[in-house]
């Protein structure tokens, strides 16, 4: 994964250099605008168009609790000719369950921290108020 990123990054830099040199060799007065459009806006438009067309991955759909859509996406991606299709599906489901369980545990811990900090903060304030009232009644 890291190697692919490095190769893509280096290829992009070389491509940017080649485009920049070609534009400036052509004598364009505002060549930086052409380079900016070619290197920044074109990939952005391509990614937006592809994002609208490409489906979500089955694992991301499972993690969001959309099991029916995940099943449909998985059957689209893995045709019946795949040998280990059932094993792969069960593996994705178990990984998604682990991720969901971890997120739920984190949410419960956060709620416990919030509720304990709220109740802990409220008790001394109420006790202090009671002390003040009882001291005022005595005095």
Q: Count of DSSP E strands?
A: 0
* Inertia-based shape: elongated
Element order: H for helix, E for strand: HHHHH
Please estimate the helix content. Answer: over 70%
Number of helices: 5
Query: Which value, in Å, is the CA radius of gyration?
Result: 29 Å
Separation of the first and last Cα atoms? 75 Å
Largest sheet report: none
Strand content: under 5%
Provide mean pLDDT, rounded. 75
Which residues form runs of ≥5 with pLDDT under 50?
Answer: 120-137
SS-based class: mainly alpha
Give a description of the structure:
- This protein is mainly α.
- The chain has helices at 2-25, 31-53, 58-63, 67-77, 85-138.
- Mean pLDDT is 75; it is low at 120-137.
Summarize the structure.
About 85% of the residues lie in helices and about 0% in strands.
Which key terms come to mind for this protein?
single chain; 139 residues; mainly alpha; 5 helices; disordered C terminus
